[in-house]
Amino acid sequence: MAAIPGVMRAAVLADPGRISVRELPVPEPGPEDVLVRVHRASLCGTDLKIRSRAFFPDGGPPPGTFVPGHEYAGRVVAVGSTVDEFRIGDRVVTEAHRGCMRCANCLSGSYTACLNSGRREKGHRTQGMTVNGGFADYALNHVSTLHRLPDHLSFDAGVVLTTVGTVMHAFDVLGSLLVGARVAILGPGPIGLLATQVAKELGAELVALVGTRESRLKLGRALGAGLALNTHDDDAVALIREATAGEGADVVLECSGAAPAVDEALRMTRRGGTIVLVGFFGESVTTDLNHAVMNDITLRTVRGEGAGSLARAVSLAARGRLDTEILVTHHFPLEEVSEAFDTYAERRGDAIKVMLDITDSEI
C-alpha cells in the first residue's frame, strides 16, 4: 500500500452552480474513524441540489471548503486507534448516514431521522451533505458506515449498492413480506430500476414500472418488470388495475419526485394498500388526500439507506441476485467533475449512473 500523502485532490463547491478541483489536506482518522482511498464515486439527484446550494437552508459552506459525494467505494488505508473491524487493504462501500446514536430516534434504529441531524459535535454525520464526502482521493468515515465489498464485485457495482440500500429501506417500512405482492414503481431512474430488481428478488408477484423514457422502460423490462408503461401512451392507472383484477397495486413506490405522480400513485393503489414516497420533490405537492382517507391508503416516507439496509444490499449482490453495474453509463476523471455533473443533470447520452474514476484501477 502506497504511503498516504499530506494533500489530496478534491472536488469542492465553488459559487452556486459550480464545482471545481483543488488540493486539500488529507483528513486524519480519529479513534473510531477509517480513512478510505476512494476508487469510484457516483452522482445522484441530491448532488445537483448541493451544487446549486439549494440543499443548504443557510446557503451552505464557504466556496472552496466543502467536498460533496455520498456514494463511493474504495480501499481502507488507515484506521483509528479503536478500529479492529477493518484492516488496511479491505475493499469497502460506504453508507452516507451516521446518526448521533444518542437521541431517541437513533436508539430505536431510525438514524436517518436523527434528532441531532447536522450537529457534528453530537456525533451526527452525513457524508457529502453535512461533512466532507467522497469526491476526493481520500474520505473519512465512521467505522459503522462501512461494509466490505466482496472481491468479485467491481467498485462500479459496489458504488451503486448505496442506492440499492435506499430501495431496501423503502421495502423495510412496509412491515410485511413482499412475497406475492403486486408492486407499482413510478419513475425508471436509478432508484426505480433497482427497485424493479429488488422487488422481483423479494418475491413480488407483479412488478409494474411507470415512466416517460422508453429507453429506461426497455431496461426495466429486461430487469424484471412484468409491465413497463409509458405514460405518454398508456393509461397506467387503468392498466395496473386491469392487471390486478380491478383492485390496484398492493404497494406503490413513488421514485420520480414528480409532483403529479402522487395523485397517480393514489389512484393505482388498492384499498388498504401502501404508498412509499422515495423521491425528493422539487416543488410543493397538491394531492387528493381525501382519496387516501376514504380508501385507507397508508403513505410512508424514507430517507436514504437506513436500518442496516446497505448490508442486505451487499449480501444480495454478493449472491449474484442484482445487476447494479448495468446502470453505470458514463465515466469521468475527477478533473472533469463539472462535465460529469452537466452530463448527469442534462441526461446526456441517456445518463443513468455517472461515475467519477478517482483512482484509475481496481487495485
TrEMBL record:
Swiss-Prot/TrEMBL keywords: Metal-binding, Oxidoreductase, Zinc
UniProt superkingdom: Bacteria
Enoyl reductase (ER) domain sequence ranges: 14-356
Cofactor(s) named in the record: Zn(2+)
Entry keyword Cell membrane: no
InterPro entries attached to this UniProt entry: ADH-like_C (IPR013149), ADH-like_N (IPR013154), ADH_Zn_CS (IPR002328), ER (IPR020843), GroES-like_sf (IPR011032), NAD(P)-bd_dom_sf (IPR036291), Zn_alcohol_dh (IPR050129)
GO molecular function: oxidoreductase activity; zinc ion binding
Pfam families: ADH_N (PF08240), ADH_zinc_N (PF00107)
Family under the similarity heading: Belongs to the zinc-containing alcohol dehydrogenase family.
Name used for this protein in its record: Zinc-binding dehydrogenase
Organism: Amycolatopsis pithecellobii
